């Protein structure tokens, strides 16, 4: 049975389409839903772009939303990208590849 979760804590991400997502199980056995990027046409007047470049995490165990701050080298804003867990090199790491933004297809860099 599908049931809406309404008793969460934290601020959920803004609405979006074509976001990438994956599930990560932490060494502490927590289940995390990781959401990256996507497209929201309503944000264009505010930021001059429709592509998002944020990482939002929902901790399924504690029903808590968290937004991550991204520092250093990072992918350009994009939607329709691939997001995969990177357990071999970092237990809670992720890989990002491909996608599109307002200007073009995103380069073939792997993050």
Summed up:
The chain is mainly β and 111 residues long.
Structural notes for this entry:
With 111 residues, this protein is mainly beta. The chain has one helix spanning 44-47; strands at 20-25, 31-39, 51-59, 64-68, 82-85, 94-97. Strand 1 (20-25) and strand 2 form a beta hairpin. The longest helix has 4 residues, at 44-47.
Strand order in the sheet with the most strands: 1-2-3-4
Helix and strand element order: EEHEEEE
Helix count from the secondary structure assignment: 1
Oligomer: single chain
Termini Cα gap: 36 Å
- Helix % is under 10%
Question: Which outline best applies?
Answer: globular
Mean pLDDT: 90
The description of the largest β-sheet is: 4 strands, antiparallel
Low-confidence stretches are none
Strand content: 25-35%
**Radius of gyration from the CA trace?**
15 Å
Tell how many strands the DSSP assignment holds: 6
Tell me the structural class: mainly beta
């Amino acid at each position: 049975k599908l049931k809406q979760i309404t008793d969460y804590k934290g601020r959920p991400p803004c609405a979006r389409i074509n976001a990438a997502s994956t599930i990560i199980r932490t060494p502490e056995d927590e289940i995390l839903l990781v959401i990256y990027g996507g497209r929201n046409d309503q944000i264009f007047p505010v930021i001059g772009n429709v592509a998002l470049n944020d990482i939002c995490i929902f901790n399924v165990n504690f029903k808590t939303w968290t937004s991550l701050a991204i520092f250093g080298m990072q992918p350009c804003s994009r939607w329709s990208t691939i997001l995969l867990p990177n357990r071999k090199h970092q237990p809670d790491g992720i890989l990002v590849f491909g996608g599109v933004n307002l200007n073009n297809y995103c380069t073939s860099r792997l993050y």
